[in-house]
Design goal:
alpha/beta; TIM Barrel; eight-stranded parallel beta barrel; 39% helix
Length: 315
C-alpha cells in the first residue's frame, strides 16, 4: 500500500487509514480480527481508534476498540510494524470522563489508552475536539509533556476550525512545544448544504483545505462514505446533504464509476487519494466484503479529466 507524508514529521503513513471505531463492540472479536488481518495483509499499517470507542453501542462503555487492538497486536506480535492513532477529548459517560482537553484529563486518558492497548507509546495522539473552555496553552503543554516522556510520538487535531489550528501552531512555535501535524475532519464527496450542522462533529470547509495545503498539515477524512448512504438501498442521504447539489455530484460520481469499472465508494476513496493535497480516508468495514471493496480503491486510477469533472460537479 502506498504511503504519504504525515505533515512535516518526516514519517510516512498508509494512504488508507483503518478506522477501528466499532471493532470489539459492534463488531465481535472474531470479525474484528479478520478485518484487521485483511487490512494488514493488503499492506496497511495506519490504524485509528479513540478512548471513547464505542460507548454508545449497547453493552459497551468505551475503550473496547483499544482493548481489542491491544489483544490483537499481542497475538500477532506486530506492534512495531503498525502506526497507531488514538484520541482524547470527548466524554465517556460510563467512566465519568468529561468532554475536555484539560491537562489533567489528557494525561490521565493517555495512560488509560496505553494500558488498554498494552503499548508504551501512541504514535499519533489527537485532541478529538476543540475544547474552548481550556486554554490552548494548557492542552498543548500536556501533549508536549507526553511527547517528552515518550508516551506519544506526534499529535493531531480533530473537529477544529482553521483559525484555531493556526492559534495552536503559533503557541507551539512560540513555546517550542509539539505541533499538530494533521487534522481529522468529517469529509466526503458530497458537500454539506449551507448552514448544515453536524455537532459535535465539524465538517471540512474550503478554508481548512487551503490552510492544510499551505501549512503542510495532513488532512484525514472521517465518514468518507457516509455509512453506506452512497450505495445501500436502506440508507438515504440526510438533510445536511440532500438537494440539487448532491444530485448533480451523484450523477458525476456514478458516471465515472461506470467509466473506470469501480463502485461509487471506490471512486470516492480514490478521489480523495488523487486530490492535491492528498486526503487520507479513514475507512471502516463491518464485513470482509466491505473491506475488500474499500481496499479495491487502491487500484482505481482517475485521470486528470475525471478528477476535474468530479470537482466541478454541482448545482
Amino acid at each position: 500500500m502506498k504511503k504519504v507524508p504525515l505533515g512535516s514529521t518526516g514519517i510516512d503513513v498508509s494512504i488508507l487509514c483503518l478506522g477501528a471505531m466499532h471493532l470489539g463492540s459492534k463488531e465481535d472479536e472474531a470479525t474484528s480480527v479478520r478485518l484487521l488481518d485483511q487490512y494488514v495483509e493488503a499492506g496497511g499499517s495506519f490504524i485509528d481508534t479513540a478512548n471513547i470507542y464505542a460507548y454508545w453501542i449497547p453493552g459497551s462503555k468505551g475503550g473496547e476498540s483499544e482493548h481489542l487492538l491491544g489483544k490483537w497486536m499481542k497475538q500477532r506480535g506486530n506492534r512495531d510494524r503498525l502506526f497507531i492513532a488514538s484520541k482524547v477529548g470527548f466524554e465517556v459517560p460510563a467512566e465519568g470522563v468529561a468532554r475536555s482537553t484539560s491537562a489533567q484529563l489528557v494525561v490521565a486518558e493517555c495512560e488509560k489508552s496505553l494500558k488498554r492497548m498494552g503499548v508504551e507509546t501512541i504514535d499519533l495522539y489527537y485532541a478529538h475536539n476543540d475544547d474552548r473552555n481550556t486554554p490552548v496553552e494548557e492542552t498543548l503543554e500536556a501533549f508536549h509533556k507526553l511527547k517528552k516522556e515518550g508516551k506519544v510520538r506526534f499529535i493531531g487535531a480533530s473537529n477544529f476550525r482553521a483559525w484555531r489550528l493556526e492559534q495552536a501552531r503559533w503557541v507551539s512555535n512560540t513555546k517550542g512545544w509539539a505541533e499538530y501535524c494533521c487534522i481529522q475532519q468529517r469529509y466526503t464527496y458530497l458537500r454539506p448544504n449551507p448552514g448544515a450542522d453536524f455537532s459535535p462533529q465539524v465538517a471540512l470547509n474550503d478554508d481548512l483545505l487551503d490552510y492544510c495545503a499551505n501549512r503542510a498539515i495532513t488532512l484525514l477524512a472521517y465518514s468518507p462514505l457516509l455509512g453506506g448512504a452512497y450505495t445501500r438501498k436502506d440508507k438515504t442521504l440526510t438533510a445536511q446533504y440532500a438537494g440539487p447539489d448532491a444530485d448533480a455530484r451523484l450523477a458525476a460520481l456514478n458516471a465515472i464509476a461506470q467509466e473506470v469499472d469501480a463502485t461509487p465508494n471506490q471512486v470516492i476513496l480514490a478521489w480523495m487519494m488523487h486530490s492535491d493535497p492528498v486526503v487520507v480516508p479513514v475507512m471502516a468495514a463491518s464485513a470482509e466484503a466491505q473491506m475488500q471493496e474499500n481496499l479495491g480503491a487502491l487500484a482505481v486510477t482517475l485521470r486528470a479529466e475525471q478528477m476535474a469533472r468530479l470537482n466541478a460537479a454541482g448545482a
